[in-house]
Amino acid sequence: MSAPSGRRLTSVLGTIAVFALAPIAACGLADDDTIEFIPPEEIPFGLDQTTTTTTTTTTTLVPQATVEPTVPTTTTTLSPVQTAPVEVYFVIGLDRLQRQTLQFSFPIEPLQVLAQLEEGPPADVGVGLRTALRPNLTTGIETADGIATIDLRGSVINRTSSRDQNLAIAQLVLTVGRLPGIGQVRFTLDGEPSRIPVPPTYTLSEPGEPLTYETFSVLISSIETPPTVVPTTSEPAPPPATPAPTPPPVVTDPPNDDPDDGDRDGESDDGDRDGESDDGDRDGESDDDDREGDDRDGAGGDADGQ
Questions:
Q1: Residues 38, 149 within the same domain
Q2: Enclosing domain of residue 8
Q3: Between residues 164 and 287, which one has the greater pLDDT?
């Protein structure tokens, strides 16, 4: 070991000795200026060690309550769909149209009405109704200044009979011509103005001429379609059975066992014949009387003449 290290060790040991002897001096021992060095091997275990105090601080964390976020409840109230009545015309019979009032969402779109005309009458509006419009007959509709322009597809109209062509045109004019904001209907065929047969004579109109409801109203049937009756699941009780009428008894004449009846009948016949003879005699007598009267009259006449 080097000299500085020895001096440090000696200083440390001296300091330890001073602290070790201090209690002895306090107990009344004689003062002694001599410093006695204790060899390191004689120092009690642990006295020459540097004591390090470690303070451990334990921090207990209180668990925080888990707060779940509150999701606001959103209540969606659906407002009822507003509808409006529309008079739609369908074919009834051979060549007549029948009005049916159907409900459409408001505001009314003409394309919805055209789709209903091509689809045909609903099943619950009446019996015997149909539509003359083939699917995809119309390609669109435009409205301006109260006039609706309906474009017809030529490939579809050519496959339609002339009767159904006239009925289809009538359905469109009568139905679309009464929609809100529309008063007249004109037609184009594949984009070109078309001439339309107009009832009752079915003369051709001018190309693209506007047509009115009143012109085609002559095809409206005056017979209202009765409402459809939905049958119920329960069958009505059968009427009570009517008992068969009792036939009247057959009345037969009893046998004639009395022999006198025949005699009485014979007598009656004879009496009748006798009566007839008497009548004949009386008649003869009357005739004789008449002749005698005539003779007397003749004699009187002769006397007068004489």
A1: no
A2: 3-42
A3: 164
